[in-house]
Amino acid sequence: MSRELLAVGLAAGGLLLQGCATKPVVYGPIGPEAPYGYQDAQNADGGHTVRVAMPGQAAPEALRAFFDRRAGELCPAGVARANVFRMNRDGYASAPYVHGGVSVGTRTWIGAELEGYVYCKPEPTAAKAEPAPAS
Amino acid sequence: MRVVLASSLCLVMAACATGEPAPYARPLSQASIEAMGPTPVSVNGDENGVAKAWFYTEVNGAGAGLIGAVAGAIAAAIINAGPSARAHKQADEVADVQTVEGLNASLVSTVKSEAARAPTGTGVSFPDVLVAYKAAPSVTDDAVEITTAYTLSEDSSVLRIVATATYANKALPYKTPYTFKKAPPKSETQGPLYRNTFTYYSTPLPVPTLTPELRERLIANIKESARDANGALPAEGTSEYRSMQREIELANDNKLTANETSLFLTRGWLSNDGARIKEEIRRAHEFVARYLLADMNRTAVPSLTGQDELLETAADQRTVRRIGRGVEAGSYVCSAPDVMGFATYGNAIAVSKRTVAYVKDMKAKAPKPAKASGRKS
Q: Which of A94, A95, A100 minimises the CB distance to B64?
């Protein structure tokens, strides 16, 4: 009986811990299993829009580092111009309930985002086209 | 059993309350544009002037019954007294250089100039632009209404200006352009024919780094703010004294909070007779006027799953975007370039005493809602 109780307790504890666990921030594209990372799209004007998402406590420098790294990958010949136009941090305020005493509300940051445009330097032409042989 | 039934009912009701989302923006159809033609603009008199955002900390003492509630209220007063007083003082300082009537006049004048520059011909145009305060909330029929909100961020690094434009006409009811799996949500069966928002973010002021000298200035500022009308510091044991002590403790914690930072940055907006804040407001009004008129002659229906569009990049790299996805799809955002940090807007705003008095006076003089009307037929 005590073993069963222990197993149930461990399983419940595991589930609770899993609920609290934050997905690690790994550099890579955002996807169904990766809420943090980068996402980008090519724009009509030739530039790219790059969005970076991280947990709420992330520092602005961390978001910017992901942005610069992705910009470098998108622009093998170098970045001509980058423009970060948005940095947001979303959160909520909670007033925890404490029986028999006064509790002070806390502010929890749930997510941080950065978005900007990246324009690449033109790629150097690989090789001059061979002139067509005279017929 | 009753508890289970009540809980189930709550869940069912909660599920029903969540309708299918639709973008907030409501574009006009070609037929509506032609029917509207020249339409007057009514700028709703701004009610808060340049408000100062701050964060109100909730305190919960209800667990201990009435005593707990009273203790919670006292604790909330102590915790929030400093940040609230600070935000209100800053709102007062800003209102000294940028009045609410100045904001209204600037927007009216800019929309008029933009309307005069627009090519004449078919489509929506703005032949007349007026500012109006209302005695009570109401919808003006057959006039484009612009409502504004000017907010300094918690740390005062950014001024955010949001303008919401609406147009309602009893003769032209709104018909949703979206299809829904079930019946359209109630919000999509009523309301204005046209609606959109235009958001402008100022160039951010650089946030200072905490140094021992800055900390001393901060503490001096806290003491200065705590002095009464006679210049005396609060007496020991009073709630004002406890509030001041708490502020000083926080100032010594080696972290510069947004509220503390605002003490230094608000002044950055006010130097040279508020030249910086006035310039940002001028640019914001130009952005609103230009894109509002263009948007009211545009028929594209926003989608929840579209893509952002870059509409303009100014010489200083400031951009104008049309949001492409989510409930904000279709709205316009004008952003400063090279943003380096977060700007947050708290959960409360402080409005200057001057603005409160002016708005109260204007509302008292305003005609009753039934008399408010748009163009004369």
A: A100
**The residue type at B41:** V
> Which candidate from A43, A86, A112 shows the least CB-CB separation from B339?
A86
Distances (CA, A) of A36 to A55, B323, B326: 7, 22, 19
For residue B183, the cross-strand partners are none
The residue among B219 and B8 whose pLDDT is bigger is B219
Count of other CB atoms within 10 angstroms of residue B310? 17
Q: What ipTM was assigned to the predicted interfaces of this complex?
A: 0.79
What is the arithmetic mean of pLDDT over A80-91?
A: 94
Torsion angle in degrees (nearest 10) through CA of B177, B182, B185, B186: 100
Q: For residue A9, is it within any domain?
A: no
Range of the domain at A41: 31-120
A13 in a structural domain:
no
Select the more confidently predicted residue: B348 or A1: B348
Contacts of B317 in chain A (CB under 8 A): 83
Q: What does pTM read for this prediction?
A: 0.85
Query: How far apart, in Å, are the Cα atoms of B20 and each of B16, B180, B253?
Result: 10, 7, 47
Give B61's contacts in chain A (Cβ within 8 Å): 101-103
Does A43 map to a domain?
yes
**Amino acid A67: pLDDT:** 98
| DSSP character at residue A56 | T
DSSP, collapsed to helix, strand or coil, labels residue B58 as coil
Number of domains in chain A: 1
What are the φ/ψ torsions at residue B73 (nearest 5 degrees)? -65, -40
Answer yes or no: are the C-beta atoms of B21 and B357 closer than 8 Å.
no
- The per-residue pLDDT for range B63-93, each reduced to its tens digit, is 556 777 777 788 788 888 888 988 999 999 9
Between A11 and B326, the more confident residue is: B326
Tell me, yes or no, whether A133 lies in a domain: no
Do the chains contact at A117 and B310, CB–CB below 8 Å?
Answer: yes
From chain B, pick out residues whose CB is under 8 angstroms from the CB of A87.
339-343
Nearest CB to A104: which of B59, B62, B337? Answer: B59
What is the Rg, in whole angstroms, of the alpha carbon atoms belonging to chain A? Answer: 24
Cβ proximity of B199 and B333 under 8 Å: yes
